[in-house]
Amino acid sequence: MSIYQHLPALQVVVPMLIAPLVVLMRGRGLAWAMATATSMMAFIIAVSLTNIVLETGAVSYAMGSWQAPYGIELRVTAFSALLLLIVTAASTITLLFGKQSIDSQLEEHRQPMFYAAWLLVLAGLVGIVVAGDAFNIFVFMEVSSLASYILIAAGPNRKAMPSVFKYLIMGTIGATFYLIGVGLIYMMTGTLNLADMEVRLQEVQDIKPIIVAAGFITVGLALKAAVFPLHVWLPNSYTYAPHMVTAFFAACATKVSLFVLLRFEFLVFHQNLVEHVGHFSTFLIPLAVIGILLASGVALFESHLKRLLAYSSIAQVGYILLGASMATASGLTAGIIHMFNHALAKGALFFAIACLATQVSSLRLENLGGVARKMPWTMAAFVIGGLSLVGIPGTAGFISKWLLISAVLEKGTLGIFLVVAVLVSSLMAAVYFWRIVEVAYFGDAPKQSAELHEAPKWMLLGTWFVALANIYYGLNPSLPLLLSNQAAASLLGQLP
Amino acid sequence: MTSGMQIIAALLVPLIGAIGIALVGRKSPNLREAVTFITAIALLVIVWTMLPGLFAGERPEITLTELLPGLSIKFQVEPLGMMFAALASLLWIVNSIYSLGYMRGNKEQHQTRFYVLFAVALSAVMGIAFAGNLLTLFIFYEILTLSTYPLVAHKGDGKTVASARVYMGILLATSIGLFLPAIIWTYMATGTLDFVPGGILEGHVAGPAVGLLLVLFVFGVGKAALMPVHRWLPAAMVAPTPVSALLHAVAVVKAGVFTITKIIIYIFGVDFLAVEPSTDWLLYAAIFTVIAASIVALRQTNLKRLLAYSTIAQLSYIIMAAALLTPMAEIGASLHIVAHAFGKITLFFAAGCIYVASKKTEIAQLAGIGRRMPWTMAAFTIGALSMIGVPPTAGFVSKWYILGGAFQADSYIVIATLVLSTVLNAAYFLPILYIAWFRNDETTPANNHGEAPKAMVIAVTITAALTLLFMAFNQPVLDLESQLVGITR
Amino acid sequence: MEILGLYNYWAYVAVLMIGFYAVIAKSNLIKKLIGLSIFQSAVFLLYITMGKVDGGTAPIIQAGVSDQIFSNPLPQVLILTAIVVGVSTLALGLAIVVRIKESYGTIEEDQIHLLDHKS
Predict the structure, then answer these.
(1) Among A134-148, A304-318, B61-75, B397-411, which is the least confidently predicted range?
(2) pLDDT 10s digits, B283-339
């Protein structure tokens, strides 16, 4: 057997096994180097997996050669490949270019533990994505969640602690809900393998427990994905986490939960529950729309930069959900590609904020007057990220907005209202983003501005790398588009 | 060089110029301006060498990349766009001469940023002019908005930033809120966004929906400043005068009316609009804007704001002419894009000359200024006459054709509007001329000034001369645009 | 009979709600964690219950005995993992509470809010 066949397993195993070794690396950036190298390896594995998936279709891997449904199956589809790319790329780029930021926020003796936790998050997230059975998804979800509580708690502000506590409580409740749902399904079908579940559910006569299970799973995962109104843990966690952790999480953490949610809704329940699509849509469309509008509205009046963007993240989750809740190929494509594009936009924005934070003492808006004059490169990258967020043509965000609006328009009269909601929130995004730009470019300089310099070159390089990716994928979106098209088709059962 | 490559070159040359300007800007202002001129001249050569091919009936095109399936970034040269590009590239050179004098004479800050963004904006204008489908046009439309925002906010004080916010807010809100849905709607209805002679919508959309779509398009293109989305134009007058002159008399606003004309001709199709009763409102909206903006202009005391409202009125002339849907009126619309550009840039240049030389901005302060600044005011006079439409100025030619178009369409209300607005134009321009030439000079000895810096005077003279020459040498434009009508007929 | 016969499930729901109530209503962070543990334990109960087969014994194959009824072992194995997850969550939660106590001097949620708003 060639090494290629083991890639799905290696994807998870490599970061997970190296994580404890990283703890032993003391001093002078060894831990960082090792974590970065591991993350990079994970990224390379993800890229090769994507290639394999594009060439030969979905890959299935039987753990320890025990065949599914009895053995543990790992499964990489186009959808998981896209998520793998997002997760590993986000981790690699933030680690590679973010060292200075992490150094400035974390004492050196705490760093080995920090990087170990980082790798565990990475292993957990990719584990969720490749896992083919419901219980392993739960385990990996908890691995990544527990490790991510640690990462967020590493934030220098003491307020990080209560926010992590809140996140821990809500995250655990979400995971437990999910577990209840999985238990109920297991009770009725006797299987945990997702693909097997779909088949066996067809024979189930008494459908009530399944409906209850669907409710528990949807709510539990919605909690983890910060779907409005279950988003309350997110703003503070993102605000007080170390900047690089925020950049990493904003790019991928909530999306992985959405990924699981979509897999359950469409693969397991879609075919088997009467009217399921109707329930799913009527339940989620209002939540998505209210979430989009309300979170954008809060962002309008928020003055802490990171919290502002955190609220914007909640709104963006709403976009993804809105696309998905159309339950059509075009809607799902729009939602899924927005996962990718939003990761790019938010990644660039949070990276730029990390650059800012190396120079300014506070990230509140009133403290950033005229900062663009001292840090022109940082702010220019920030502007690009923001434009992508608003959905200006030529950036990645425009692609998803275009697809989303066209998907929504297919819904007729309801579609027109939804389009209005999407457009209004885009304009709100333009406003809250422009507030920052105006202050940064034209505001009066605060007192300490004399000592401001441009951010470290290496970090700037990373910021610009992500910012330019926004433009590249805005002009040439063929790769994410191909993957999301395939993902949507396979979710709707149009692909073998 | 193939014509397709020429289109790309026209887009890239200003961008490369912008990078060059940014690189040398800090070190030497002279070098920076030299780069600007070289770029402008290179652009002029590239654009104007495409003209002969176009006269011969060529329609070069190039597709860059496919954004979404069936939707590509695509460029195609056609007469209307060619004219717009030729106009903008010509006036950029004149404007660069003028900027040189203005920015130095006024000792403005951030001059490098100014020249860089100016070049970027020109690149966006080329993109709009040569766009081969609505999507490409939309992309460059937004780039133009974004790149001109810092130019409008150039001064950077509270009031300027607030005005720039209005500028940006209206243009972005209309384009994202109305223009983009209209484009997506069109795409979903027809499956294409290409500019096709004769339009693409016929047979796909019918009834009141056509009227609604036209509403989305016309008000979505906020740059055309049709009332009530005109507020950004007076707000943008806080910009330095060269910006007002090139961008808000030529590039930005003309990009707006150009887009609308293009949508009428290539998306809706003239014939389709003519038989669709739900779209008649456009003509009346344009007429209303012509009259209302002229009346507002009457009441202005600030010279630049007066010019802004005059611009709004003149833009609606073009929309009105295009909405007449007769061949002669379409020619008139395209002629007026050129004629108004020459006239209005002259007026803005003159206003800037006055500001730099004397710091005067109000009309009442201009008493007797004609004797102190004879060249400037002579040019101003020519520009004003062109606005009114008096021969031998450019405005006369285009008005002639619009009037002809109105007779062709038997549209007496348009004829009446033309007459009324001519009277109104005269009513707000002639008093200025009177004050400037015949009223006694009341300038305090402390503010004893003469003519503006040489570069500015040269520039204003050139544009004034162009305004006059266009009366005699409009044949090429006419030939070019007859092709346009030939295909729409 | 049908209703009462499912008393295990009723117990699970009751325990679940007791735990959930504690998480929501208590402002003391330790009590919240206790509630969270009870909440999770309820799910363990659900899994164990569903694996039970009437009259079944532990699934150990004995030589010579072939007609034994076994309870389903898989849910128990699953729940072992879930218990591990629950324990780690509790440990981490307690560690965070310790850190909160160190930096705020209190573990009452409302007081932490007050302290945060003052600063």
Answers:
(1) B61-75
(2) 899 999 999 999 999 988 888 889 989 999 999 989 999 888 888 888 888 889 889
**Domains contained in chain C, number:** 1
pLDDT at B156: 79
Q: Is residue C82 part of a domain?
A: yes
Q: Which residues of A161-198 are buried (b: 16+ CB within 10 A; e: fewer)?
A: bbbbbbbbbbbbbbbbbbbbbbbbbbbbbebbbbbbbb
Neighbours of B, requiring at least 3 CB pairs below 8 Å, are: A
pLDDT of A1 = 53
In terms of phi and psi (left: phi > 0; alpha: psi -120 to 50; beta: otherwise), the region of B23 is alpha
- Distance between CA B230 and CA B305 in Å, rounded? 12
Chain B positions touching A442 (Cβ under 8 A) are 153, 156, 161
Cβ <8 Å between C89 and A146: yes
Token digits of residue B204 = 């796909």
Could you tell me if residue C60 is inside a domain?
no
Residue C28 lies in a domain: yes
Based on the structure, what is the number of domains in chain B? Answer: 1
Tell whether the model's pLDDT for residue B346 goes beyond 60: yes
Other CB atoms within a 10 A radius of the CB of residue C119 amount to 7
Q: How far apart (Å, rounded) are the C-alpha atoms in residues A393 and A400?
A: 10
Q: Would the ipTM clear 0.85, i.e. be above it?
A: yes
Nearest chain B CA: its distance from A473 CA (Å): 9
Question: What is the rounded distance in angstroms from the CA atom of residue A492 to the CA atom of residue C115?
Answer: 51
* C38 vs A: CB within 8 A: no
Whether A445 has its CB under 8 Å from any CB of chain B: the answer is: no
- Of the candidates C39, C50, C75, the beta carbon closest to that of A176 is on C39
Decide if A492 touches B, using CB distance below 8 A: no
Which chain A positions have a beta carbon within 8 Å of B146's beta carbon? Answer: 387, 392
- Global pTM reads 0.88
Domain that holds residue C82: 2-52+71-118
Tell me whether residue C64 is in a domain.
Answer: no
- Residue among C43, C93, C99 whose CB faces A168 most closely: C93
> What is the C-alpha separation between B237 and B319, in angstroms, rounded?
22
Distance from C-alpha of B203 to C-alpha of A315, rounded to nearest angstrom: 38
The structural domains of chain A, with segments of one domain joined by +, span 1-273, 275-496
Residues (pLDDT < 70) of chain A are: 1, 272-274, 445-450, 494-496
Confirm whether B178 is domain-assigned.
Answer: no
Contact status of C37 with chain A (Cβ, < 8 Å) = no
C50 in contact with A, Cβ within 8 Å: yes
Identify the CATH number of the domain in which residue C81 sits. Answer: 1.10.287.3510
User: Does chain B touch chain A (at least 3 C-beta pairs within 8 Å)?
Assistant: yes
A465 in B contact zone (CB under 8 Å): no
Domain that holds residue B352: 281-489
Percentage of residues of chain B with pLDDT beyond 70: 97
Residues with Cβ < 8 Å from B276, sequence gap 6 or more? B206, B210, B211
Q: What is the pLDDT of residue A147?
A: 93
